[in-house]
Amino acid sequence: MSDPIDFDAFLRTDPRDVGCGEAMELLHVYAELHAAGPEAARSRYPGVAAHLRACGPCSTDFEGLLALISLPGPGVPPGDLTRPSAEGD
Ligand SMILES: [Zn+2]
Questions:
Q1: Pick from 61, 54, 67, 53: which is nearest to 24 by CA?
Q2: How many A from CA of 29 to the centre of ligand 1?
Q3: In this structure, is residue 43 part of a structural domain?
Q4: Domain boundaries, position 34
């Protein structure tokens, strides 16, 4: 109880790390960028990338979001099934 600051964790923290609040705000944007191109996402939001490396809970949320983005949504029709089968022939 004499050590309120975890200096070891502090020293391991990337100085670019934006913290949980900002990472959460940008997480959906970052995940969409990452799905399109991980390099682009990291270069655009290096602070979020740094935070996700450092923060387990946020990186778990990010992975969940990324999985959702990668899946075809329920509103996306599987192509040919929506075509009319008879077109007047
Ligand atoms: Zn976090």
A1: 61
A2: 16
A3: yes
A4: 16-69
Flag whether the pTM goes above 0.85. Answer: no
- 53 in any annotated domain: yes
Domain count, the chain: 1
- pLDDT at residue number 28: 95
Q: How far is the CA of 89 from the centre of ligand 1 (A)?
A: 59
pLDDT at 13 over 60: yes
In a domain, 77, yes or no: no
